[in-house]
Amino acid sequence: RGAEGSNRAGSWEFNIDLTAVQTVDFQLKLGAPITVRAVDPSGAPVAGASVVAYAAEFHELLEIGVVDEATTGVDGTATILAPTFAHIAVDASAQGLLPSWVFRRRLSVNGGNLNFQLSEGVPSTGQVFSTSLEPLSGMDVSAWAYSGGAWHWSGLQRTDAQGRYALLRGTQYTRIYARDPEGNRVHAARFLRGVDSAAIPDLTMPQGQPLTLRVTDDSGAPLKSKVWTYSLENRSWAFCGHTPADGSDLVTNVSTRFLL
């Protein structure tokens, strides 16, 4: 990250072979000074909300890609130095308010303002299991929650040793997703209407079976294509990725019974 008082935003470098290099150079570019204001559904300022700027090129969004972070004061505002191409998140989950995001936003080095109105969420808990009912730890869980007339992304979290997770559901609809960061298990998903209980129905993630795919047109030329599968074991759709346009294979995991 840039030094205190610097106008240079932080930067990330990945896939560095430390057996080949002893020095890693970072080029820090001018950042975008952004003032973020967070208010609750009534328009009152939200103090103590976490404001985080991510480099938009990276999509793990756990702690990977964080460039700057701050906490809103009593007036509901915080100032961050974001990259000029960024995701910005405001999170006051501890106060029962759904996180709010702007994705892939182009920002000016001359600065600007972003306003977030946070919606109410419903604290909920759930668990992730294998098909043999063993709790699965270390699975990524996220949700899209509909509340206050808009969809809100929960961010990513990991299940604990008992396969448990906690998040805020929307007051109207919630889509919950679980995926294996190691890619060994089939994704799981649920769509929930309203909130009839604080408990979320269990998610089941079958062991995946390797599948190699290549897509071509009628002349045999490779096509870049989106690939989705539907598991008949846990009744969940999963996005597997894109088949490469250069003709190489896409390797993914599917359940033993699936639609493609």
Give the arrangement of secondary structure elements.
Blueprint (H helix, E strand, L loop, with lengths): L31 E8 L10 E6 L10 E6 L5 E6 L2 E7 L8 E7 L5 E6 L4 E8 L10 E8 L2 E4 L3 E2 L5 E6 L3 E7 L8 E6 L9 E2 L4 E5 L11 E7 L4 E8 L6 E5 L3 E2 L1
Parallel strand pairs: 1-7, 8-15
Antiparallel strand pairs: 1-4, 2-3, 2-5, 5-6, 8-12, 9-10, 9-11, 9-13, 13-14, 16-19, 17-18, 17-20
List keywords for this structure.
260 residues, mainly beta, four-stranded antiparallel β-sheet, 20 strands, 0% helix, 45% strand, globular
Structure description:
This protein is mainly β and 260 residues long. It has no helices and 20 strands. It has strands at residues 32-39, 50-55, 66-71, 77-82, 85-91, 100-106, 112-117, 122-129, 140-147, 150-153, 157-158, 164-169, 173-179, 188-193, 203-204, 209-213, 225-231, 236-243, 250-254, 258-259. Strands 9, 10, 11, 13 and 14 form a five-stranded antiparallel β-sheet that branches. The protein has a four-stranded antiparallel β-sheet with strand order 3-2-5-6, with no helix packed on it. It is globular, with a radius of gyration of 21 Å.
